[in-house]
Amino acid sequence: MDLLRYSASRYPAAHLQLPFRTPLRRRFVAVRSSLSLPFAEQKAKYYSELEAAVDVVERACRLCVDVKKSLFSSDGRILEKNDQTPVTIADFGVQALVSLEMNKLFPSIPLVAEEDSAFLRSNNLVGSVVDVVKDKATLGDEVTEDNILKAIDRGGKDAYVFAPEPATYWILDPIDGTRGFVKGSEALYVVGLALVVEGKIVLGVMGCPNWHEDCSDNSIIGFQENQSSRSGIIMVSHVGCGTWTKRLSDILSNESPHTWTRCSVDSCQMVQGARVTIPESQTWKSLPLSGLFEAKTDSENIGEGNILLLSACCGSLCKYLMVASGRASVYIQGKKATSIIKVWDHAVGIICVHEAGGKVTDWEGSSLDFAADQTERRLIFPSGGVLVTNGSLHSKIIGMISSNSSVL
């Protein structure tokens, strides 16, 4: 790809929260992706950005696979943050790797991500992150403890202060579904990276290393015994170019050919009998549709007035992946008074679902506002919650939610 066509002025940088600004210098580093994209460069305005994102997510998945192999044999690899959310060296490693690589290629584009280095610093774990990042970075000699800490904090809270106007920035979820990652099971987890340009999500990449290809409607996603089908996938999306997947196992093993498959949402037209997934932290009875439909987990005994509830031990991005790939018709998440909704749990999923023919809004039918958090771009405030569908069911479900508003 021709990186010379980029300039530091193409994407106005957000304001660094520092006493002064230093001139940005462009680094020219070739992307080493092992696969081409499924559409022509001429059709995709952000082709090179997507190519770079695919490359770094691919390597981030390699990092996750490597860490997971040693997760239960090395002390100190399973950690807990102050909020009791499980987090591993892989989370910090992925954020450091993505931050390092994208900052080389696009130094004017800020990064909004989940982690910061405070936990690593206080627990003397920086060296462990250096070890897992070094062989995945393009320039291993730059992977020092100091650079790792700076890279992680580049995406952390308070790293940038945005203006209220539309902005351009990367959004990263290092590992969505960390609870599954550390269980020792094959629960799904996702590395997700999206690019927002002037307030619009224009591309996204999701890597799911242990996604399995074959599952029946009544299966518990992420807990199949047949490991031969657990190939993993990488999903890519570009505005106007569709959503596509490729087997991650082929990419990681450098096998060929690598065949892209275009994704489409399912064709379900009736809410009754639809395949629905919800957050692990919520119950069907806590959601407004429970007043109209009973949820069943057995596809052979749905019956009238029921929906099929797909159990899924995974984060929200995996559920977006399920809708975009046609495995689920609906993902519905309620906004709880005791929690906040983070942008990295939704951004990359939104474009993947949209480009696959689906729709994402809040419970009132409004688009999610990624600029509502005007200074940090880290939070969204959907009314009621988030609704993700195949598009055909969207207005019907919005109407049902409205008519059952007393449940909210």
Automatic annotation (TrEMBL):
Keyword annotations of the record: Hydrolase, Magnesium, Metal-binding
The UniProt record lists the keyword Cell membrane: no
Cofactor names: Mg(2+)
Lineage top rank: taxon: Eukaryota
CDD domains to which the protein is assigned, alphabetical: PAP_phosphatase
InterPro entries, per the entry: Inositol_monoP_metal-BS, Inositol_monoP_superfamily, Inositol_monophosphatase-like
Record bears the keyword Magnesium: yes
Signal sequence range: none
PANTHER family recorded: PAP-SPECIFIC PHOSPHATASE, MITOCHONDRIAL, PHOSPHATASE
Family: Belongs to the inositol monophosphatase superfamily.
Official protein name in the record: PAP-specific phosphatase, mitochondrial
Species assigned in the record: Solanum pennellii (Tomato)
